[in-house]
Amino acid sequence: MRNFIASLPKAELHVHLEGTFEPEHIFAMALRNGIELGYESPEAIVAAYDFHDLPSFLTFYYKAMHALQTEQDFYELTYAYFEKAAADNIVYVEPFFDPQGHTSRGISFATVINGIHRAQQDAEQNLGVKSNLIMCFLRDMSAESAMEHLQLSLPYKDWIIGVGLDSDEKDNPPMKFKAVFDRARAEGYKLTMHCDVNQKDIVSHIWECLNDIDVERIDHGINSLEDDALCAEIAKRELGLTICPVSNQFVVQTYTTDEIRSMLRKGMKPTINSDDPAYFRAYLNDNFEALVEHGNFSQSEILQLVKNSFEVSWLEPTDKNGYL
Ligand code: ES4
Ligand code: ZN
């Protein structure tokens, strides 16, 4: 099964570039930029990982971002992820980035996106990994800040395929960002939002994503299974759900294999993704292997999940056909 998983050309639709920041790179960049994070070695960084829910993860994730200072840092972060992706036989990625995590520390939007974009170009050329970037807003910041960042992104519109919403979901419902997402759609961006696992009011958040925001994809969305009408609507709209099994294991202590199978049975379109692979210590192939190990997934189930990723991706239909 390992070889089968490794040999399949795959797509990844839910990976935070800042979540691919490996401890060796955090350490080296902090050192060269003179940023004091308080760790003596990469091993000390790993030893400090203690993720058991979303807030415990996010605190660490934002702290490590301080090591990223220059355009070259963003280039190296991004290119290193694409090298990992190529090693996993990923041929297409729609990675997320969190500009507010950087502008809030005085790093310009241009610094961030120029570094990322150059790495995307080089990865396509040198590694054969194609990608389209998704800009995420931090939902625990204000809607005004999100709107400002939407404005900042407009000169780079051709480099960004869509917008998403991430960070701490508690008391930060989709509706808080309705005006921002309406404007994003008018500017030509595709729309997705995190509906993280087992968050407060999560079923109503997913309904808001459908009825008020009109998203074109849902990130996570595991809890849609609590509502039959919601499942039916997601299936009818053929909305992809970007599921992250190892991330779920950290955040809610289950790989959610039963839930993934239920979605497949109901005609929904779950896909498999890594979320924050450097922190959760599992890239995409590891996530598929977890389904085999913890849920006894078959080759045909794996194949269906891989096919779903290309189908619900935001590739042009003509480009999709080459992969399906
Ligand atoms: C995230 Cl696991 C998760 N949930 C919400 N926001 C995030 N940003 C990066 N990883
Ligand atoms: Zn995520």
UniProtKB/TrEMBL annotation:
Cofactor dependency: Zn(2+)
Taxonomically, which superkingdom?
Answer: Bacteria
Which InterPro entries has this protein been placed in?
A_deaminase_dom, ADE, Ado/ade_deaminase, Metal_Hydrolase
Q: Which GO-annotated molecular functions does the record name?
A: adenine deaminase activity; zinc ion binding
The EC number(s) this enzyme carries: 3.5.4.2
Q: Where is this site: Important for catalytic activity?
A: 220
Protein's UniProt keywords contain Cell cycle? no
One GO CC term on file: cytosol
Q: Which family does it belong to?
A: Belongs to the metallo-dependent hydrolases superfamily. Adenosine and AMP deaminases family. Adenine deaminase type 2 subfamily.
Q: What is this protein called?
A: Adenine deaminase
